Amino acid sequence: MILLGLPAKMINRLCIQSIMSKKVKVIRNDQVNRLVLSKPKHGEISVFIELEDEVLVMNHITVDNISRAFHWLNGHPRLFALEMALKKLAKHERPEGRPEHQFIETERAEEEIQKEADSWLAEGRRM
């Protein structure tokens, strides 16, 4: 999708429509058979979410970012939505020893993020 030269409002609408065209799957607690966490020797923790017909696997960094964002959002009295996006950082942009792919908080408005999340939940409930 080429977005150059379009007004910001139109770009926002096109981005949200693009995201909205993705398949939405809401996983309820009663659909999760097991949660398994594993830390192999000399390795990083992985989280496995066992469903009836599939297993979702999340690596250490993803879970760490979810946890950090969850605690931040849960503990903040006036913050109701936040978004983090994967960004590839050059060596000079990141602290020593940090991976080049990191989740960075975006500058999207909280209201836009919340509206998108609400629409995903509504879409998932329809399925």
Concise structural overview:
With about 130 residues, the chain is of the alpha+beta class.
Overall structural class, as computed from helix and strand content, comes to: alpha+beta
Distance between the termini: 28 Å
Runs with pLDDT <50, length 5+?
A: 1-7
Strands ordered across the widest β-sheet:
1-2-3
Order of helices and strands: HEEEHEEH
Tally of structural domains:
2
How much helix, percentage-wise, in residues? Answer: 25-40%
Count every beta strand, where a strand is a DSSP E run of 2 or more residues: 5
Largest sheet: 3 strands, antiparallel
Report on the architecture of this protein.
The protein is α+β, with helices and mostly antiparallel strands. The protein has 2 domains: 26-58, no CATH class; 60-127, no CATH class. It is built from 3 helices and 5 strands, in the order H-E-E-E-H-E-E-H. It has helices at residues 8-20, 60-75, 110-126; strands spanning 32-38, 46-51, 55-58, 84-88, 101-105. The protein has a 3-stranded antiparallel β-sheet with strand order 1-2-3. Strands 4-5 form a two-stranded antiparallel sheet. The radius of gyration is 18 Å and the shape is globular. Mean pLDDT is 83; it is low at 1-7.
